[in-house]
Amino acid sequence: MDQKGEQVYVGSIDQGTTSTRFIIYDKSAKPIASHQTEFTQFYPQAGWVEHNPIEILESVRLCMAKALDKATADGYNVDEGLKAIGITNQRETTLVWSKSSGLPLHNAIVWMDARTTGICRRLEKELSGGRTHLVETCGLPISTYFSALKLLWLMENVEGVKTAIKNGDALFGTIDTWLIWNLTGGCGGEQTEPGLHVTDVSNASRTMLMNIKSLSWDEPTLKTLGIPIEILPKIISNSEVIGKIGIGWPITGIPISGCLGDQHAAMVGQACKKGEAKSTYGTGAFILLNTGEEAITSTHGLLTTLAYKLGPNAPTNYALEGSIAIAGAAVQWLRDSLGIIQSASEIEELANKVDNTGGVYFVPAFNGLFAPWWRDDARGICIGITRFTNKSHIARSVLESMCFQVKDVLDSMHKDSGEKGEVKNEDGDFVLRVDGGATVNNLLMQIQADLLGSPVVRPADIETTALGAAYAAGLAVGVWTEKDVFSDEAKQEKPTTFKPKLDEELRKKRVESWCKAVSRTFDLADLSL
């Protein structure tokens, strides 16, 4: 409640790679109700990953309704007290839809999808700067990861997209844009205005089409790639009143006032200021270091991206990012494809049955490797297997693969940012803040601290992505101030700290073995089936 005794709430739509959640927070930023549902993953070919955009919309609708019902049943007057909605989403995932019908013209192409490898190779040959031709303007290398390449594939391969662009009926967007357009009116009607076609600076920064300095669509890039600016959404900040939710949704008339890509939302949820870093462990793993108002160009395989811009006139915070394609997805692979575990939560117990991997190293380069390697020709391997190897060793090697990949990224960050670019604790250690569903695994967190040789801090509420979107929305409508979000005093519950226990010499040997394993993954994409 606020000072007048009024119940005050903020909702957060968290649309991830495998599931959607809606969480309702009270004024103290504690969750009072939530609902989560998974949706279908489509794999049309090896390396291809798609989502049904209509199914994603329906998952949002369901989660909203169920969370509201739970809150009401528990005595919370959310109908009267809900002040704002924030949105956070899987980044880079790309779709094009019809302005007139509101229907997608193809399934959404997911961020980890690798079908654009051929387009990447073509552009690298055609452009004078090769793979890094656009880095100076957008901060990103040419890669299957980013939205522009997925959009080019749709423009070149889907007749419906070609026709809609020609007729002025096509709208492009990442998932945030798709959600906001539908939530604020969609196609419109007799009594409703059409939906708002917008995206925020963090999601726009992942398309390869936004100028990282001006925060606007880069016209030379659009001309080079042949992408018409008319199909692109308007770029806005992460925290401002965008529009109100229209009729036909479980909530209506409530302002959408916060929007961030999932990793940027986690930075806000973790209150990462300049010099501080967080790692989110989900389907992939994403490590971001806030570099303040300076956009640092990496020379060690990292990306220059937005951290957040909390208002139209607020300063822009930038970040160095290392993106890891496969983290928790490797655990899902053990469960769904190999049947080694029945649920993701079982992996900790199974891996704890052995003290080490028995010399087994697993590199989950299922669709190539992202930062800092950027090898789309890499494929997954499991090496060091002997007759002694059992499923516990395999399980532990999967957990270690997440932690080794995070260490690779952090090593690059240390080199790029230097001593002055990082904040250290009173013991002189650089602290990694962690969040995401996989961080409930205590063994994973201890392995991470051991391999880094520095502390890992897990907050009491590990779902900081949804919290960050709620904070952004609440900031825009006055529910919270930046002091509420970023001051240490604002954090009410004590985090858990994991300190390294591994001998330094052994750590070095294991890192060397990991790097040898990574090198074995290269140039395997053309193996005959």
Automatic annotation (TrEMBL):
Specify whether ATP-binding is a keyword of the entry.
Answer: yes
**The protein's name:** glycerol kinase
NCBIfam families to which the protein is assigned, alphabetical? glycerol_kin, PRK00047.1
Q: Which domain of life is it from?
A: Eukaryota
- UniProt domain Carbohydrate kinase FGGY N-terminal: residue ranges: 9-269
Give the E.C. number(s): 2.7.1.30
The alphabetized UniProt keywords are: ATP-binding, Glycerol metabolism, Kinase, Nucleotide-binding, Transferase
Q: Name one GO cellular component term.
A: mitochondrion
- Which biological process, per GO, is one annotated for this protein? glycerol metabolic process
The residues covered by the Carbohydrate kinase FGGY C-terminal domain are 278-476
Write out the pathway annotation from the protein's UniProt entry.
Polyol metabolism; glycerol degradation via glycerol kinase pathway; sn-glycerol 3-phosphate from glycerol: step 1/1
Reactions accelerated catalytically = glycerol + ATP = sn-glycerol 3-phosphate + ADP + H(+)
Kindly report, in one word, the top-level EC class recorded for this enzyme: transferase
Family (UniProt): Belongs to the FGGY kinase family.
Q: Which GO terms describe its molecular function?
A: ATP binding; glycerol kinase activity
**Gene3D superfamilies from the entry?**
3.30.420.40
